[in-house]
Every structure is written in structure tokens, then in C-alpha cells.
Task: inverse folding
């Protein structure tokens, strides 16, 4: 009986410690996963969107500081575009409609045609989407700065078009910027699958705040 009792006690102790170790492992993994970003941080280590100063459809100055504390979707377009811009902005409008009531969300659409896309032109263009300038900013500025910010700050793939009509070749991709001005994703603005993923990723970042 004594040997049998000791055997049961030993088994109980072993099982107890195994369960205890398992609990600690689960807790440790949970904490580790909690501290690991669900979305990657893109660009070189430490990269954040740096200084810029553009003008929106209301004539207000928009700088990198306006990205602080906000989840921001960024794209490049121009109002005279008849190729993929209308489709891109129609898709961006869907993003706008879903998140426009969240105070921690915004969209910045920068023109690649500053010679034509003046503040009044952008204001009229924004009207067709019913875009609130507090949420969806259509911006213009100096051509070189618009180009440099696209390439070096938002890490978007654009190409210089040798100044033809003061435009440069833009991309159909949207950039997702988090509350700390870090780039967290790129999404093809013409692809439904990418748009669905963008919506999910925006929700993830809004919950991270």
C-alpha cells in the first residue's frame, strides 16, 4: 500500500508540474504575441515619414505632424487622369465611407499634377466624393517635394516624367501609415482583394492605439 501510495503521489507531483509548466508557457507565448506587431514595419529600421508641407483643398497646410496619432492611407493621383485614377479614387471612397467617422483615421491624396491641380480644382474634385477635408485631404505642393516625399518618405514607386505638364508617373498603390508615421503596408488600389486586406489592416492599427 505504501509503495502504491508513493507511486500515486509521485505521479500527481509530475502531472502538477507538467500542467504548471504548460500554463507558464501559454502565458509567456501570449505575452510574446501581444508584444509582436501583427503587421510588419516596412522600410529601413527606424524609418518614419519625415518632413513635408503641402496644401489641402481648403488651403490649409498639411505636414508630417498631421500624421501623428492617426492611421493614414496615402495615394497619388491627378484630377485630369482618365486611366486608373477614377477607379482608384472610387475604391478609396469605399475606404473613406467605412472609416470616416473614426477620429483616428484619415486619407491623404497627393496630386502629381500641381501645375493644374490648384486648391480650387482640388476642392471641386473633392466635392464629387462628399469628402470631409478633416478626413480626406486632397493635397498639392511643389512638384519636386511631392515626388521626393512619394519616393523617400512613403516609399511608393513613382517615376519622374521629365516635367511633362509638371507631372510625374504615379503608382496605383496605397500606402498605410500608422500612428507613429511608420509604413505598415502597400495595397493595389485596383484590386478588390488588396482593398479587403487594407480594411482589415486599418482595423488592426486602430485597435493597436
Result:
Amino acid at each position: 500500500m505504501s509503495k502504491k501510495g508513493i507511486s500515486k503521489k509521485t505521479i500527481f507531483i509530475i502531472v502538477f508540474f507538467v500542467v504548471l509548466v504548460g500554463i507558464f508557457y501559454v502565458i509567456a507565448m501570449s505575452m510574446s504575441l501581444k508584444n509582436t506587431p501583427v503587421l510588419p514595419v516596412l522600410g529601413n529600421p527606424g524609418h518614419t515619414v519625415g518632413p513635408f508641407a503641402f496644401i489641402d483643398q481648403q488651403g490649409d497646410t498639411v505636414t508630417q505632424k498631421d500624421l501623428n496619432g492617426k492611421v493614414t492611407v496615402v495615394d497619388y493621383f491627378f484630377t485630369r487622369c482618365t486611366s486608373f485614377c477614377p477607379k482608384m479614387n472610387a475604391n478609396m471612397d469605399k475606404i473613406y465611407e467605412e472609416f470616416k467617422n473614426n477620429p483616428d483615421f484619415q486619407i491623404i491624396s497627393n496630386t502629381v499634377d500641381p501645375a493644374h491641380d490648384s486648391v480650387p480644382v482640388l476642392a471641386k474634385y473633392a466635392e464629387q466624393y462628399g469628402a470631409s477635408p478633416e478626413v480626406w485631404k486632397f493635397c498639392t505642393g511643389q512638384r519636386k517635394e511631392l515626388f521626393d516625399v512619394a519616393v523617400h518618405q512613403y516609399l511608393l514607386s513613382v517615376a519622374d516624367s521629365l516635367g511633362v505638364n509638371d507631372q510625374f508617373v504615379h503608382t496605383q498603390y496605397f500606402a498605410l501609415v500608422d500612428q507613429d508615421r511608420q509604413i505598415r503596408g502597400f495595397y493595389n488600389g485596383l484590386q478588390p482583394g488588396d482593398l479587403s486586406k487594407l480594411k482589415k489592416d486599418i482595423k488592426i492599427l486602430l485597435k493597436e492605439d
Observations:
- Residues 53-208 form a domain with the Glutaredoxin fold (CATH 3.40.30.10).
